[in-house]
Amino acid sequence: MKLKYIVKTLLVGLVFTACSKDSDSDTKETAATTTPDEINNFVWKAMNSWYYWQSNVADLSDSKITSTAAYNSFINGKTPDALFYSLLYQRGTVDRFSWIENSNEIVQVSKIAEVEKKGGFSYAIYPKDASNTNMVALINYIVPGSPAALAGLKRGDVITKINGSQLTSSNYGQLEDIQITVTLAASVQFTSSNMVTTDKAGTVTVTKTAIDENPVAYYEKKVYGAKNVGYLVFNGFKSDYNDELNAAFAKMKSDGINELVLDLRYNGGGSLETAVALAQMINGSFTNKPYIYLDFNNKHNNVDGYENLSEKVNIFNLVDNEPTFQREENINSLTLTNIYVLVSFQTASASELTIQCLKKYINVITIGEETVGKFVGSNTLYDSPDYNYISYANRSTKHKWQLQPITFSYYNKDKDPNPAKIIPDYEINPYSTFLNLVEFGNVKDPYLNKALELITGQTMRTAAKNADASLLLKIDNLAALNPTNTAKGLYIENFKRLNKE
What we know:
By secondary structure, this protein is α+β, with helices and mostly antiparallel strands. The protein is built from 11 helices and 25 strands. Strands 3, 4, 5, 6, 7, 8 and 9 form a 7-stranded antiparallel sheet that branches. A 6-stranded mixed sheet has the order 11-12-13-19-20-24, with helices on both faces. The protein is globular.
């Protein structure tokens, strides 16, 4: 594996920003009207230009700048993050995904922070009963060599306490802190109305460190007669791992894979370019055909258009934590006409794109739970007004604020309306994972088990246990409890490639 980022990145490139979600009401001590605040002026004008719902937000209307004094008074009265969030269209309902960043802060989640401060474990939050008060965190997987791995955590562990306190709807956000101490469950049982846990003695401490996680997490070939089944766990559309993804498909070609189970349960999205490349890897028979349609706001209709499937993929390394082009590679393509995709309430954006757009060309069978429903994307906006706010190289160095607003929606090649969420063809009770979350590739995994049954027509013999289905019926919208795991989104890291202006 190549060196993914240079030493400078390790030293100073780790501090991309977190969302400042709690500072909406912050105001500045003064609201001078003689000159516009430099940072807020950038925030407003960038949003006025690129925000997807600009025409729906009165405070982003072009008429707002007709009076210099009124404009200055308006933008100078708030902190940059408070101004930004005040400009979102129906924040939390229509727009659930835009954020502003200040790189002086510590990263929690970022679409563009490929190297992040992490503990090295992916998790999902589940209520213990219908009151949605007491929670547990189920560990989806562990990044090899990470602090979590070194601390002994493993896939399937259940966190019941954080820093000595019961995990609840009020404190589970502490799982994103720099250092945490967690208590694990010794046992998990289900009744008809709740989950019952008992705790292990002792605790586990995890301290975040810089991680550039390889999203190509697992691959295995399984043979059932003439069926050579590939099982690929892909946890993020990260363009700096395009070569590893391509190499995985080269291995599949050499393995004679003729059926594929693609596990996107923990994949919250990422690079548009990687998403298009993945489709070509799955079936290379449609080169140069339209794959995805991007729709920007009315100020940028000339950027609207199709991304076509290509036999080439760009390879990136990280330089100062920015994906930097290195070379092209020929894509290693299979010719699959069926694909089985494992999904969950953490499956979002570029993962949903893969399902919606790929099914226009091949048969896509989904197994799992309803997905997030994020059919929009973004490109990072910098304080570079002379370059229409899209140039990182020409950004102002006087501050470190940058924007990650929704700037486009996407559709399949026929521009079909998107559903609210993707409803799986075969639904799995998410609580069943507590009793069966074995290592990747083990057929006791109920999601993989179902896919293999559909592929082979055989019943897989396992000792899998089922959670009480009545509990599932009382729990609403698990995705809403997991914002840090579903916010990766769809983004364009090489926006100049699309920009025709």
